[in-house]
Amino acid sequence: MTSPRFLPALIVVDVQRAFDEWEAAGKRRNNPDAVARIADLLTAFRQNGAPIFHIRHEGTKPTSSFRPGGSGYAVKDEAREAPGEPVVVKHVNSAFIGTDLESRLRAAGIATIVICGATTNHCVETTTRMAGNLGFDTRLVRDATWTFDRVGPDGEKYSAEEIHAMTLSNLNGEFARIVTTDDVIAAFAAR
Fold first, then answer.
1. Most exposed residue of 1, 9, 47, 104, measured as fewest CB within 10 angstroms of its CB?
2. Where are the domains of the chain?
3. pLDDT tens across 127-141, in order?
4. Which of 159, 162, 181, 160 shows the shortest CA–CA distance to 170?
5. Radius of gyration over alpha carbons of the chain, in Å?
């Protein structure tokens, strides 16, 4: 994961309070320890002096849970950026569309990125697919992302666990390598 010259960058996608509000309203999610694992990743990257990019979703629809100034737009405390860590604001699912994320990564000589955040099958998946297509060596941290139960177009209910697992299966090998938080931390220790 690391080389003597370059460190991987951590991309933290949409760890915002809107998701807490969704849960409080009755939406069920998987992976309840995901935010704690994100905090572990942030600690490891900071301790190793590796770059971190925080992604925020800024909703544009009046009913969006992610509208600027709304309670859901704020970042969760566990994932708050430290001084000097850039925050990239996006308006669509991918952190690469309409932002300067790719140019920042390329300018810094970053070839490997590690992605975590929410939700697995929306912004995390879209960002991961684009990262792979753009040629980045992409790692998606399975225990540091989560999603919610959904109902399909045929009315069938799918659990967050099923959606999470299928999304990881779809991405694995073609767009990213699926890893755990422990895998990422162990790679730092092995440097």
1. 47
2. 9-189
3. 999 999 999 999 999
4. 162
5. 16
Q: Measured between alpha carbons, how far is 185 from 50 in angstroms, rounded to an integer?
A: 12
Name the pairing type of β-strands 112-118 and 87-90. unpaired
Spell out the alpha helix ranges (H) of the chain.
Answer: 18-24, 34-47, 101-107, 125-133, 160-171, 181-189
b/e map of 139-153 (b: 16 or more CB within 10 Å)?
bbbbbbbbbbeeeee
Q: Is 52 left (phi over 0), alpha (psi -120 to 50) or beta?
A: beta
Contact 33, 138 (CB under 8 A): no
CATH architecture of 9-189: 3-Layer(aba) Sandwich (3.40)
* C-alpha to C-alpha distance for 37 and 144, rounded to whole angstroms: 5
Question: 30 Cβ partners below 8 Å, 6+ apart?
Answer: 146, 147, 148, 159, 160, 161, 163, 164
Strand-pair partners of 114: 10, 139
pTM over 0.90? The answer is yes
- pLDDT tens, 63-114? 999 999 999 999 999 999 999 999 999 999 999 999 999 999 999 999 999 9
Measured CA to CA, the distance from residue 109 to residue 111 in angstroms comes to: 6
